[in-house]
Amino acid sequence: MPVTEKIELQDPTLLRDSLFIAGEWTPSSDDSRTVVTNPATGQVIAEVSMATAEDVQRAINFADSAFKSWAQMTAIARAKIMRNWFQLTLDNVEDLARILTSEQGKPLAEARAEIIYGAGFIEWYAEEGKRLYGETIPTNVVGRRLLTIRQPIGVTAAITPWNFPMAMIARKAGPALAAGCPMIIKPATDTPLSALAMAVLAERAGVPKGILSVIVGNPKIIGGKITSSSVIRALSFTGSTEVGKKLMADCAGTVKKVAMELGGNAPLIVFDDADIELAVNGVIASKFRNSGQTCVCANRILVQSSIHNEFIEALINAVAQLKVGNGLNDDTSQGPLINEMAIDKVHAHVEDALSGGGKLILGGKRASIGGTFYEPTIITNVNEDMLVSREETFGPLAGVIKFETEEEAIRIANATPFGLAAYFFTSDLGRTWRVGEALEAGVIGINTGLISYEGAPFGGIKESGVGREGSLHGIDEFLEIKYLCIDGLTEK
Ligand code: ADP
Asked: Separation of 146 CA from ligand 1 center, angstroms?
């Protein structure tokens, strides 16, 4: 299919449609291609090469041969290159944002914020690479000394989703490269262009050949090659719990280290002592950002009965101001959903809630502009049995559950196999600690709906994942601890 919509860029060379393997831009070995569309218009914006199993193997082999020299470089030298990559990313933020919005749909302002946020991980880990300290351990035997060193784990792989096409890559490649590991990246097939553009900048920054590869293609073929490879020692995945579980099982064959950022079902609790305006802002940020398509989106909004009506009133006012449209338009705050399946899921959740006694307050249908746009929606009278409470909606539907006591809110919030993010709003210090400690989630936002920052650890508990991204902990996914026991030392 020919390209029918051109992405206007200051630097058109950022737009690539081939694979980046062994530091070369190459078509796939069988010349197959996949079409990338703009979800806002349905137009074709690129036709990108689809890697064959042979291409993936080539990327693995080359990464393997490039590993040693990258690992042996000083952290200072690696940091210089990564710092260049960070700076080039910031220098090209406008183009990167246009590429991102064109393939993913989110408003340009959110795309810019994602690029800057993602770049932060490259900068932060460039520096953290200089601080990968080992330890000395008081000896247990005379004439012996004990110490540990932390070494890069080897060749690594990343499989990333479409909802943050740039940041999910930076969150993984930043620490992997800083640790001294090559990384092979498989971006989501719907949104490969941001990943390819980041590879252009990595190449310009001086990242050596084979240290960063981007291979677009059939998830099962690439996933199969990655999980079965004994060369690849760690896999970092962000995506659905279902696929994550399968990849974990497949990685067992070669006992790979896995970092899994999987689905969530975040509760957002508004207590009767909350600042209502702050809570409404929190819901807008955490529920409606990226049109509800983030794994930390508030999925269940719990509001204490005594402030329920006042809160709903304020929420309606805020949601009614959201403007649905093409993300490339400056006034858009809600872009399209990624595809028809996403629309079907949101609508199924709406219909299920309404048939179970939910009350439609706002939205509840496709937006009048057509395509994959859905109206920002509020439903009250939601209960725990409804689909919207049990599954991640991944769309702009705020389902509100009314509760009476703190104990009840905590019980409802924790009644899920997931445990990624949770949010609550309160002005009571005792409650802040009590609820913060009681909620079963890896990330807790208190009086805020926005929690991500490269210096803080992000990750889930329960079925939401293993491992952390960001902070000093995130780099551990790409390191091994080696214990050196030196004996036979003469004591005088
Ligand atoms: P989402 O709901 O975000 O699309 P997925 O888990 O389906 O979540 O996708 C996340 C990433 O996992 C994407 O890059 C996708 O191509 C990839 N993926 C999906 N299925 C598989 C699979 N069987 N093996 C490897 N990767 C997969």
From this structure: 43
List of E strands, 221-365: 232-238, 257-261, 266-270, 298-304, 359-362
CA of 103 to the centre of ligand 1 (A): 17
Radius of gyration of the chain (CA): 23
Ligand 1 atom closest to residue 226's alpha carbon, by position in its atom list:
25
pTM value > 0.90? yes
* Per-residue pLDDT reduced to its tens digit, 258-289: 999 999 999 999 999 999 999 999 999 999 99
Query: Which atom of ligand 1 is least distant from the CA of 186?
Result: 14
The alpha carbon of 335 is separated from its chain's Cα centroid by a whole number of angstroms, namely: 18
492 CA to centre of ligand 1 in angstroms: 61
Q: Is the pLDDT confidence value at 491 over 90?
A: no
Q: Which atom of ligand 1 is nearest to the CA of 223?
A: 25
pLDDT tens track for 292-345: 999 999 999 999 999 999 999 999 999 999 999 999 999 999 999 999 999 999
| DSSP characters over 26-42 | E--TT--EEEEE-TTT-
Catalytic positions are 261, 295
To test ligand 1's pocket by mutation, which of 34, 36, 159 has the most ligand atoms within 8 angstroms of CB?
159
